[in-house]
Amino acid sequence: MASLKEVRNRIVSVNSTQQITKAMKMVSAAKLRRATDAIVQMRPYSRKLTEMIATVSANAEGAKENPYTIVRAINKVLIIVVTSDRGLCGAFNANVGKAAVSLISEKYAAQQAAGNVEILALGKKGGEYLSRRGYNVNTAYVDIFTKLSFTNVRTAAEAAMKGFEEGKYDVVELVYNEFKNVATQILKTEQVLPIVEQKDDKVKASSVDYIFEPSEEEIINELIPKALKLQIYKAVLESNASEHGARMTAMDKATDNAGELLKELKLQYNRSRQAAITNEILEIVGGAEALAAA
C-alpha cells in the first residue's frame, strides 16, 4: 500500500488537473456558442446558393463548359483535411486522419503509390497525423485557425481551385467533421472538384422561373467559384464548431473521471491512515506489556 505522503500528493495533483479540465470545459462552452452561431447563420446561405447553381446549371450550356466541371482521368489528387490546431478533444482529429487514410487506400491507392496524392492540411493536428505516416502534406495553410476568417480560407480555396484549373490536380476531395450537436460530430467526405451533378435529396433545383441578366452562362461562371470557396469555408466553420463541442465533451468526461479518482484516492488515504494509527496503537500496547512483564 502506498504511503500517506504519496497518496496525499496524488490527491493534490488530481485535484489540480480537475480544476484545469473544468476551466477548459467552460472556455470551450463559451467558444462553442459563437462557433455554433456562425455555422447556423452560414447554412441557409450555403444551401440557397447551391440550390441556385443547381437551378441555373440544369439547362445552361455554360455550366458544362466551365473549367471546374471538366472531368479528367484521375492521376493527381488533392485531399483537403480540416482538423484543429490543438488536442484534448477526444478522437476528433484522429477520426479525420483515419478517414483521409481510408479514402486514399480505398479510392486512390494507385495514385498514392505513384506519389501523386497531396494533402492540404487546414489545422496543425491533421498535418502532423498524416506527416508521421509518410504522406505528402502541404502545410502552407496549416495555421488557418489562428485567425479564422473567410479571407484566410478563401486563399486556401483559391490555391486548390487554381491547381485544378491548371491541371495540377485532377480531383479535389474534402474531409472534415460536420457539427450536429455538442456530443455528436458527423465525419464527412465530399468531392469539391470537378463539380458533379448533385445527388443529395436535400439539394434540388428550384422550380422558380428566374429572369437572367446578363445571361445564364455568365451567371453560372460567376457563381461556381463563389460556391466552391463557400463550400470550403462552411466545412471549416463546421469543423470549428465540432472541435469545441468535442473538447467540451472530452473535458466534461475528464472532470467526472477526476472526481471518481479523487473518491478512490481519499478512500485509500483514509485506509492507509487508519492502518498507520492501528500499527502505532499496537506498538504502544506491545511496549507497555513488555515493560509490565519486565
Automatic annotation (TrEMBL):
Keywords: ATP synthesis, Cell membrane, CF(1), Hydrogen ion transport, Ion transport, Membrane, Transport. CDD domains: F1-ATPase_gamma (cd12151). This is ATP synthase gamma chain. Gene3D superfamilies: 3.40.1380.10, ATP synthase, gamma subunit, helix hairpin domain. It is found in: Cell membrane; Membrane. Belongs to the ATPase gamma chain family. The lineage of its organism: Bacteria, Pseudomonadati, Bacteroidota, Cytophagia, Cytophagales. NCBIfam families: ATPsyn_F1gamma (TIGR01146). The keyword Cell membrane applies. PROSITE patterns: ATPASE_GAMMA (PS00153). F-type ATPases have 2 components, CF(1) - the catalytic core - and CF(0) - the membrane proton channel. CF(1) has five subunits: alpha(3), beta(3), gamma(1), delta(1), epsilon(1). CF(0) has three main subunits: a, b and c. InterPro entries: ATP_synth_F1_ATPase_gsu (IPR035968), ATP_synth_F1_gsu (IPR000131), ATP_synth_F1_gsu_CS (IPR023632). The keyword Transport applies. It is a peripheral membrane protein. Coiled coil: none annotated. Produces ATP from ADP in the presence of a proton gradient across the membrane. The gamma chain is believed to be important in regulating ATPase activity and the flow of protons through the CF(0) complex.
